[in-house]
Every structure is written in structure tokens, then in C-alpha cells.
Amino acid sequence: MFRNQYDTDVTTWSPTGRLFQVEYAMEAVKQGSAAIGLRSRSHVVLACVNKAQSELSSHQKKIFKVDDHIGVAIAGLTADGRVLSRYMRSEAINHSFTYESPLPVGRLVVHLADKAQVCTQRSWKRPYGVGLLVGGLDESGAHLYYNCPSGNYFEYQAFAIGSRSQAAKTYLERRFESFGDSSREDLIKDAILAVRETLQGETLKSSLCTVSVLGVGEPFHFLDQETIQKVIDTFEKVPEDEAGEAGEAGEGEAEAAVAAAPAEQGGGGAGDQDVAPMEM
Amino acid sequence: MTKQHANWSPYDNNGGTCVAIAGSDYCVIAADTRMSTGYSILTRDYSKIHKLADKAVLSSSGFQADVKALQKVLTSRHLVYQHQHNKQMSCPAMAQLLSNTLYFKRFFPYYAFNVLGGLDENGKGCVFTYDAVGSYEKVGYSAQGSGSTLIMPFLDNQLKSPSPLLLPAQDAITPLSEPEAVDLVKTVFASATERDIYTGDKLEIMILKADGIKTEVMDLRKD
């Protein structure tokens, strides 16, 4: 996308019928660190990569609780994401107050999308620079939606957004058909494996990712570092174990396993993974 | 020309009594379960006790429609607090919130007579008592509602420091043990039920401690 004379205002159409400012906003989403969402019939898992500005700082919060039954993972301008999360929380609380029942996820994403659309049709505003993966459970089951800065939203079985998300999406595309019937544990494992794909060679440690779960009888909550590390340990082992655990013939998997193993041996085993530079 | 007056009232009194007693590491909150209107009984099985937070329980008598609305507002505000602070509200914080919420409607009040019970930041029992527009005080024990005039003098007799002239009742905490406090509550309600027509049917007792909340139900006279 090159600089052109139709991209100054969000209210200016290009001759080919595009709103460049909106498209530029979508670019901002691609710059953010990866966020991944998957769902089964009864659970939704949201995971993200913890990217910190420097070793000295803590990482930014990218997954927010909206209500006991809804969570959201963001990628892009995290400040915009924070503001939208506050809006979503307020919508959930107001709905609960009026109807004394949890806000259906589909309704929430429509409100969000309409809010985003407003910013694409006002000359004094700019589109939100954040993509949202909204995961939730309501009477019609478990849902995962993706909300764009454009004001569009789509429902997914599994999706990834942010930088290097294509690697995660490739992994998810191979496996998504089995997610519907996945157990909670398998779903979490797949989420963490998808996160690993976005790291592309970097050793997967529990301090590098944040994982959240919600489901039937399980309100939204974050998994603690220990639990995540245990799941990582089931596949970040010696290559022979790796092939057995993963249980599938994807060549991408095997390559990643081989890449992980030498790094693993260098690190001296899973025990050392707990000592991260900044435990938060 | 005399002023025209409304031929209806937005308020009704559903009766009932609420009591709370604070202990050194517990708090007892109790209320009867009778809901009335005029001289009739609407139901014998209505709870006037509502848990707002892990360490704060509200019990209110008066106009139950207003009580319900008040509970909903406080619950929603508590959710907002949890999102902002990543923790539950403490009892003293909830006490202030309740006071502000009540005063917010100073010129069309919630017809609710509240007693807030719970554990403070140090794990000690605390009770806050209110009027309809938010004036509140931290106390060691309190009673509100139709039976309060029968119960409060007896609680004063049992729990207040013996001589206010020599030893002013400084500490708001009662030196009773938990079973003694529960027993006292059962006694006062049994007595109030005898003479207050709006109190009776069942007694619901909630005991709040650091490790959780226990609920007990006791039968009261149904006449």
C-alpha cells in the first residue's frame, strides 16, 4: 500500500471504492503481537504472546475479562483495545442489570462492530487500531468472533491475528475440524502449540505466553504459569517423545520439534524454564 | 385553595426485621423471611439477605422493590470495581458505596433500612447501620425494620459496655463467641416474632468468616 491522495481522511473514498484509512487501521492490527483463539463445543481458549518493550519493562495486557462468560484478546493499538474492553464490560454489566441474564456473545460483537463503524464515517474521528478476538459462551453454545477496525465481524472455529499469525493460522487450518469435539485439555494444548508457531524457532516458555480459558461450568480465568509450563513440558521434550505426543504427521510440526530439541538441550531441561528474566 | 395530594404512594412497607452482630473474627447477619403488605402476608419465604462481595453481606428491610433495585445497583457497581481493581471490595469500601448510593437518591429515596455486615481488611467482624438516605455508622451490632424497636434495647442490654459513664463503649466489636452470637440472634428473633406481626415464618442466618459463608435457617412462629 503506497501513499496516495485518497488516504488523508477516513471519509474520502478512493476511485476504486476503498477507504484507505480503514485499511491502514487493519495494518496496525498486523503489527501487534500475536493473539490466538480456538473453540470447542463447550470451551473457548484465548492465548497471546507476551511482548515486552524491553527486558526492563513488563509485558502489555492483551487478554481481558469482559464477564464470567466472555473474554477478549486484542492485537494492535493496545490503548484502543483497553478502551474497547471497558466498553464491552459496561455493555455486559448493563445487560445483566436489565435482563438479569448473561449478555449473548453475538449481541456484544454487533455492538462493538457498530461502534467501530461509526469511526469510519466521521471526519473528526479515526478508526480503532485494534483487532479483537471475542470468545464467549452463551445459550447457543461456545463462540469465537473476530472484530475488525472496519466494523466487520466474523465467527470462527479458530483464528489468529497480529504479527506472524499466518504461521499459527496454518497450524490451526490443519487441525480445526477436530476442535469442536476436543477436550478442554486438548484445546489448551492446541492453543499453546499455535502460539509456539508464531514464535518461529524461539523456545516456548510459559513466561512468553498468556492463556485464558472459559467454558461450561468454568468462568473466564487465566491459567497460571505452572499449568502452562506443564502443558509445554508434554511436547517440549526429546524428539522421540515429541513425535509420540503430537501424534500427527505434519512436517511443519516435526521440523519445529527438531528445532526445539537442540534449544531444549541447551537450556538444560524444563526445570530451567521457570527462571525467566522477569516473573510477573 | 389547599394543595392537591396524590391518591397513591410510590412506596409500600413489606415489613420484616434485620439484625447483624460483629465478632472478633466473624460476622452474623440475620433476617426473617416474611414479606407482608398491610395486614396480609405476601410470602413466608423471601430472603432479605444479599451477598454483595466475599466479605460484605447486605440485609435490608422496608420496601422490597426498592431493596431489590438497590441490590442490583450495588452488584453492578461492584463488578465495575472488580474490573478496575482486580479484587473484591472490602466491607468498609462497600459501606461507603452504599452510603453514596443512598444519598444519590436523597430527593426520592430508596425505602430501604439497611444493615451491612462483613469482615474488614484485618479479618475482624464489622457491622454498618444506615438510615434511608445514607447516614451510616460502624457499630458492633444493629437491628433494622419492624422489629428493631423490640430487639435493639435487648441487644444493648446484652452487648453494650456496662457503664458508659466510666467506660465509654469504644471498641465496636462484641466479645461473644460465634455460637453465642448465633444463639443470641435466635433468641431475639423468637422474642420479636411474639409481639411484631410483621416478623415471623422463618429466620435466615448467615455467618461470615474468613474461610467462607455458612447459612442456617430456623423456623419462627407463623401467626
From TrEMBL, chain A:
Residues 242-280 are annotated as: Disordered. Residues 255-264 have a biased composition (Low complexity). Keywords: Cytoplasm, Nucleus, Proteasome. It is found in: Cytoplasm; Nucleus. GO terms for biological process: ubiquitin-dependent protein catabolic process. Residues 242-254 have a biased composition (Acidic residues). InterPro entries: Ntn_hydrolases_N (IPR029055), Proteasome_alpha (IPR050115), Proteasome_alpha-type (IPR023332), Proteasome_alpha1 (IPR035144), Proteasome_asu_N (IPR000426), Proteasome_sua/b (IPR001353). SUPFAM superfamilies: N-terminal nucleophile aminohydrolases (Ntn hydrolases) (SSF56235). Pfam families: Proteasome (PF00227), Proteasome_A_N (PF10584). Residues 6-28 form the Proteasome alpha-type subunits domain. GO terms for cellular component: cytoplasm; nucleus; proteasome core complex, alpha-subunit complex. PROSITE patterns: PROTEASOME_ALPHA_1 (PS00388), PROTEASOME_ALPHA_2 (PS51475). It comes from the Eukaryota. Component of the 20S core complex of the 26S proteasome. The 26S proteasome is composed of a core protease (CP), known as the 20S proteasome, capped at one or both ends by the 19S regulatory particle (RP/PA700). The 20S proteasome core is composed of 28 subunits that are arranged in four stacked rings, resulting in a barrel-shaped structure. The two end rings are each formed by seven alpha subunits, and the two central rings are each formed by seven beta subunits. The catalytic chamber with the active sites is on the inside of the barrel. Belongs to the peptidase T1A family. The proteasome is a multicatalytic proteinase complex which is characterized by its ability to cleave peptides with Arg, Phe, Tyr, Leu, and Glu adjacent to the leaving group at neutral or slightly basic pH. PANTHER family: PROTEASOME SUBUNIT ALPHA/BETA (PTHR11599). This is Proteasome subunit alpha type. The lineage of its organism: Eukaryota, Viridiplantae, Streptophyta, Embryophyta, Tracheophyta.
UniProtKB/TrEMBL annotation, chain B:
InterPro entries: Ntn_hydrolases_N (IPR029055), Proteasome_bsu_CS (IPR016050), Proteasome_sua/b (IPR001353), Proteasome_suB-type (IPR023333). GO terms for biological process: proteolysis involved in protein catabolic process. Keywords: Cytoplasm, Nucleus, Proteasome. It is found in: Cytoplasm; Nucleus. Gene3D superfamilies: Glutamine Phosphoribosylpyrophosphate, subunit 1, domain 1. GO terms for cellular component: cytoplasm; nucleus; proteasome core complex. The keyword Cell inner membrane does not apply. It comes from the Eukaryota. Component of the 20S core complex of the 26S proteasome. The 26S proteasome is composed of a core protease (CP), known as the 20S proteasome, capped at one or both ends by the 19S regulatory particle (RP/PA700). The 20S proteasome core is composed of 28 subunits that are arranged in four stacked rings, resulting in a barrel-shaped structure. The two end rings are each formed by seven alpha subunits, and the two central rings are each formed by seven beta subunits. The catalytic chamber with the active sites is on the inside of the barrel. Component of the proteasome, a multicatalytic proteinase complex which is characterized by its ability to cleave peptides with Arg, Phe, Tyr, Leu, and Glu adjacent to the leaving group at neutral or slightly basic pH. The proteasome has an ATP-dependent proteolytic activity. Non-catalytic component of the proteasome, a multicatalytic proteinase complex which is characterized by its ability to cleave peptides with Arg, Phe, Tyr, Leu, and Glu adjacent to the leaving group at neutral or slightly basic pH. The proteasome has an ATP-dependent proteolytic activity. Belongs to the peptidase T1B family. PANTHER family: METALLOPROTEASE TLDD, PROTEASOME SUBUNIT BETA TYPE-1. This is Proteasome subunit beta.
